[in-house]
Amino acid sequence: MVREAGRLDRETDLRVLVNNNGNQSCSGKIFLQHESALGLIRKLVSMKRMTLVFGLLVCLAFSVIALAQRQNDRPAGPNPGKPKKPQMSDTIKANVYADNWFMLYVNGELVAVDSIKFIPHNVISVDILPAYPMTIAVMAKDNADPKTGMEYANTNIGDGGFILKFGDGTVTNADWKAKQFSRGPIDRNTKNPRVENTPIPDNWFAVDFDDSKWGNAKEYTEEQVGPKQPYFETDFKGAKFIWSDDIELDNTVIFRHMVKSPPDGKERIDYTNLNNVVPDAPPKKPKR
């Protein structure tokens, strides 16, 4: 005799089987009421797998983004962990005009010296590799006899003037610091001319030089400076002629300026530590 319990959805159907000898045995069988329930389970399992796969993809995406960010934070080359060699495309053009002579330091390194001490007036253009913050230091001189402060065989009081523009948008203006270290002839006395000299600090061009007590440069017009032809053939748009307070009597002037970040807003790689690493060379072109 077989006795069968009532069926319940998704529950155990317990069948109790009784044989002729009076011995009883039980067997539990699990079944589903509807065949569609089995498909539902399969779908649930599939959804769990999809969720797991989606989670793994999200983690992978974040890992790739983090890696890319680290790569952008350093000058990466073909080999991971090594900076690439700077190219000319990483440099900026520096245009400089001085009446009459100058020497230019960037971040404590000498990058340009005027090749003509007096006349003819010339423009010096060089390529520099910028790094920010960028400290610019310039010594500018009007051609003058160191004992009289005059020029042209002590017959004339000269005048100075300095202007600079970098390819990143850095320009000279009244924001620059300026200090004179030689001036004359005192009181414009050309009959008995004399000069006053102040010792120039040895580290005037250093990044950490303290110029906090210096005054600001004074701006001058083109009419006041009277630049010669090479100036008009060069890009100095946005830059101003600067000097110390007296463009005629101040014969040696030092300018300093710190550029916190590129004025043009362009992000540039910092190559200041290249001396301490072995950079990757640029990819070589295949031989024909």
Please write out the topology:
Elements: E1 2-4, E2 12-18, E3 24-30, H1 35-72, E4 92-98, E5 101-106, E6 109-113, E7 123-128, E8 134-141, E9 162-166, E10 177-183, E11 196-197, E12 215-216, E13 218-220, H2 222-225, H3 229-232, E14 241-243, E15 250-259
Antiparallel strand pairs: 1-2, 2-3, 4-7, 4-9, 5-6, 5-8, 8-15, 10-11, 10-12, 10-15, 13-14
Can you offer a commentary on this structure?
It is a single chain. It is built from three helices and 15 strands. It is α+β, with helices and mostly antiparallel strands and 288 residues long. Strands 5, 6, 8, 10, 11, 12 and 15 form a seven-stranded antiparallel sheet that branches. Strands 1-2-3 form a three-stranded antiparallel sheet, with no helix packed on it. Strand 2 and strand 3 form a beta hairpin.
Structure summarized in a few sentences:
With 288 residues, the protein is α+β, with helices and mostly antiparallel strands.
Features:
single chain; disordered N terminus; elongated; 3-stranded antiparallel beta sheet; 28% strand; 288 residues; alpha+beta; 7-stranded antiparallel beta sheet; 3 helices
Helix content range of the residues, please?
Answer: 10-25%
Order of helices and strands: EEEHEEEEEEEEEEHHEE
Instruction: Give the total of beta strands.
Output: 15
CATH classification class of the domain at 89-259: Mainly Beta
What is the number of helices? 3
Q: What would you call the shape? A: elongated
Low-pLDDT segments: 1-34, 73-78
Q: Tell me the CATH topology of the domain at 89-259.
A: Jelly Rolls
Round the mean pLDDT to the nearest integer and report it.
Answer: 82
Distance between the termini: 94 Å
Gyration radius over CA: 40 Å
Beta fraction: 25-35%
User: How does the helix and strand content classify structurally?
Assistant: alpha+beta
- What about the largest sheet? 7 strands, antiparallel
User: Architecture of the domain at 89-259 in CATH?
Assistant: Sandwich
